[in-house]
Amino acid sequence: MGAEIEIEGRTYLNFSSNDYLGLAGDPRIADAAISAIQRYGIGSGSAHLIVGHTDEHQRLEQELAQWLGTERALLFSTGYMANMGIINALIEPKGHVFEDALNHASLLDGGLLSRGRMIRWPHRDIEALRQLMQGCDPSRSLIVTDGVFSMDGDTAPLKALAELARETQTLLMIDDAHGIGVLGAQGRGCVEQAGLTFHDVPIIMGTLGKAFGVFGAFVAGSDTLIDFLVQRARTYIYTTAPPPALAAAARAALRLVVEESWRRDHLMSLIKYFRHNATALGLALGASETPIQPLLCGDSRRALMISRQLAQQGIWVTPIRPPTVPEGSARLRISLSAAHQKEHIDQLLSALSQCLRVDESVQTDKPRQQE
Questions:
Q1: Which of 57, 210, 266, 344 is catalytic?
Q2: Does 222 participate in catalysis according to the annotation?
Q3: What is the pTM for the complete model shown?
Q4: Rounded distance, CA 46 to CA 52, Å?
Q5: For 27-259, which CATH class?
Q6: Residue 177 DSSP code
Q7: Residue extents of the structural domains in the chain
Q8: Exactly one of 96, 104, 178, 340 is catalytic; which is it?
Q9: Over the chain, what is the mean pLDDT?
Q10: Torsion angle, alpha carbons of 329, 333, 334, 336, to 10
Q11: Is 344 a catalytic residue?
């Protein structure tokens, strides 16, 4: 991982990674993992609730909770398992899961496979959600949203959602996989950026494989929430715990996220630089102020063609096509990282400019949201 990657012997500038802070290849994190391997070995040996939970896991949970200002945190092997486990543990029969239409697949699958009924509201439309919630028992309901939407890069209207949840006495959950480490003055994600706390957003899921550059996930919240999930979240109970070395690596990454705020500052300056110059080129970008910058191409054929043209110029941008995004909204998902420098952005912009001259159809409307 880094600003450059090698594929079949050729080097490309990498604009497809979720390594937002450029930590995935940091030698200090690798050293922490190596030291833990020497102490613990490779595998954890069992599930958390048997003998798989080590002091490295425990310290990471405590440090995450302290950093986020919550009472507790609980590790999961992946973000997908965390979302599935949380939703299925909390939703009883006859309950309702209200989800933004553009939520990540893991959230949607969690709602579909729960014992309740999943209802999707139009993307970021609070009034539509309010109408859909009428007549539902709030004590059996859960509002679920991504913090940063992974294909569009826009953010949830978290303040309005928190207010609606408070008014209706409904639990609110955020999947902040793409916000944790990146957004907020201290990198605490969408909740911090919105000026809220876990009292406003009582269920915060974050991943360790994006801005942290490691692997795994966690949920943070109250003592009561975490105790409940330990007893009821099947994807936590019935799986082997992550290797202790990964927990040690994530602890090292957390320290860097906290101490090296220049990474976020540099990343935000790159986002502004890219958007300003892309707009000058006539590129119609989505309304995103995050590292995820979608450029709509329309159909899948065009997205593939432009991606290949970029690859010929040494730029790696993976095209995103249906069913990951709606029909007619295939796109290039340009992903920026603190590992990039302005000259890397200039190379990307130059390559995109050449593609524009080849195919003017890149200049199209902003990404359409799924209804």
A1: 210
A2: no
A3: 0.92
A4: 4
A5: alpha beta
A6: T
A7: 4-21+261-370, 27-259
A8: 178
A9: 94
A10: 140
A11: no
